[in-house]
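quick one before i forget lol
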Amino acid sequence: MDALIPFTTSGSLVDLVDKKVLVVLRDGRKLIGVFRSYDQFANFLLESTVERLHHQLDYADKDIGVLLIRGENVVALGEIDLIAEDQVPLRPVPSQEIELKIAQENERRDRDHAVRDRVLEAHGFVVDGREGDAY
């Protein structure tokens, strides 16, 4: 009977051992690697790890190698379907090119937020993260 109850702890990670996985961290980074080991706190070891940078349909991978990840930093973890992975229409580009595109996108977003904040303040609204916004 107990065997029919799905794991709800780090024991559920046993099915991912020795499989290629995608990990999304709290800081937004996306890591791809082979899931090798884990412990009771859901800390785990990735081998042949790369950080995937992407912008629209362009991507670049930065080699990391072996990586120990603390479980509390993981937002999502999932197995990569090796057959479906080859069918995704992504275009590899040099990492410098993708980093430049990401930096330009972040600058544009910061400018847009600054304009939005000025307009909201002019109309009497409190800008995010200031006094009166913590309820």
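fyi Strands lie at 19-25, 30-38, 44-55, 58-69, 74-79, 91-92.
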